[in-house]
TrEMBL record:
Its main location: membrane. GO terms for cellular component: membrane. GO terms for biological process: ceramide biosynthetic process. This is sphingolipid 4-desaturase. It is a multi-pass membrane protein.
Length: 414
């Protein structure tokens, strides 16, 4: 009987109808920098479902608190000129490597090793360059950022930069909302990939899940930037095959696959928002050396709190506000995250926070006749202004006058 199992709760009336819960953790998978931080409360997770919460996502309130305590963090916002040079250098590395391998068989050991070690690392760096550029943090202007994202997309082999932008901004604005945040695994994935073999399959092919899932969860309006992205990528691929050979294009595609597979850097996909150690904390940071290859994406709590602060200044944000970040559990290792995700029975696709989307909340409230709950509720003024700045490329000073920055140039074709 479940209630007689060692370590499991005896009062299941406290768990909302769940009949299975993960055993309490005896081994911490995360660490806390501040040794004096209080031990957070832990809750068992139902391995048959996600953790559904009615609370708002944590970054809005922490952003407001940090701005109140440290208003100087606004000086960290703005574009980072270094990004475009790194993008150019990484593309040069990929072009040099594919030229060297142009006569190698795609299934030979040297070819696959280079595609994993060099190409996988380089293309993962470009994934995260596009992530950075998506927040308009490479240039002040919108169009320049979009073109750089298309340029950074070239060695990836498959056009996705334009599509990624809209999905990623939704991920920030509506973190954890079912049917909106396409970073969330679906119920079908949860049902099919529950055991060790399933989780290993997910980690091996996670780049395909991230590429294909959004199209099934939420469609996107095609814009001229989507067409530019596709046409430029197809032209680049055609020139590569025509003048260098199919092996060169195979190298780029293999590089992209390895970049999102069992690669040390790919641990960040799982580390960022999966639940660990029985905590309800839905965003985790990582402060280790792999950040040097990944645009400091490990500073993920910091990034979600302030998406208008570029990668080079996220460590400075953490240093300015240690009382907010040193008390949060963080991951010591990305490769270890992949290992624990696969083999820890308490970890898995179920360990994600989900919330009803605004549409579902309003629909539910309307059915119940709850007019108050059906009314639209906006996020804090600060959050909307900061996200608006990130989307529009506006660098003018923040103004708390309205929820939306109406005077800044709007990005009409996201």
């Amino acid at each position: 009987m479940l209630t007689d199992s060692p370590g499991l709760p005896s009062d299941f009336s406290l768990y909302g109808g769940a009949e299975t819960v993960s055993p309490p953790h005896t081994l911490r998978r995360t660490k806390v920098a501040d040794s004096n931080a209080p031990e957070p409360a832990r809750v068992p997770l139902d391995s048959n479902d996600f953790l559904w919460l009615m609370t708002e996502e944590p970054h809005r309130s922490r952003r407001a608190a940090i701005l109140k305590a440290h208003p100087e963090v606004t000086k960290l916002m703005g574009h980072e000129p270094l990004t475009k040079y790194i993008v150019g250098a990484v593309i040069a590395i990929q072009l040099t490597t594919l030229w060297v391998l142009r006569r190698s068989h795609p299934l030979s050991f040297p070819f696959l090793l280079a595609a994993y070690a060099i190409g996988g690392t380089a293309n993962h760096n470009l994934f995260l360059a596009i992530h950075e550029i998506t927040h308009n943090l490479a240039f002040k202007g919108i169009a320049a950022n979009k073109w750089l994202a298309i340029f950074a997309n070239l060695p990836i082999g498959i056009p996705y930069a334009a599509t990624f932008k809209k999905y990623h901004i939704d991920h920030h604005k509506q973190l954890g909302e079912d049917g909106v945040d396409t970073d969330l695994p679906t119920s079908l994935e949860l049902a099919l990939l529950r055991n060790v073999a399933g989780k290993a399959f997910f980690c091996t092919f996670q780049i395909l899940f991230y590429a294909l899932r959004p199209g099934f969860v939420k469609s996107q309006r095609i814009t001229s930037w989507h067409l530019k992205n596709v046409l430029v990528q197809l032209l680049f691929d055609y020139l590569i095959v025509t003048y260098i050979g199919y092996q060169a294009l195979a190298y780029l595609v293999f590089s992209s696959f390895f970049a999102g597979s069992l690669h040390p850097c790919a641990g960040h996909f799982i580390a960022e928002h999966y639940l660990w150690d029985g905590l309800e904390q839905e965003t985790y940071s990582y402060y280790g050396p792999l950040n040097l290859l990944a645009y400091n994406v490990g500073y993920h709590n910091e990034h979600h709190d302030f998406p208008s602060i570029p990668w080079t200044r996220l460590p400075r944000l953490k240093a300015i506000a240690p009382e907010f970040y040193d008390t949060l559990p963080s991951h010591p290792s990305w490769p270890l995250v992949i290992w624990n995700f696969i083999f820890d029975p308490a970890a898995g696709l179920h360990a994600r926070v989900k919330r009803l989307s605004a549409e579902m909340r309003h629909s539910s409230a309307a059915r119940k006749g709850d007019v108050g709950s059906a009314m639209s509720t906006h996020g804090s003024e600060t959050e909307e202004i900061l996200l608006s700045k990130s989307e529009t490329g506006s660098s003018r000073s923040l103004s708390p006058a309205t929820d939306f920055d109406d005077t800044a140039p709007r990005d009409k074709e996201e």
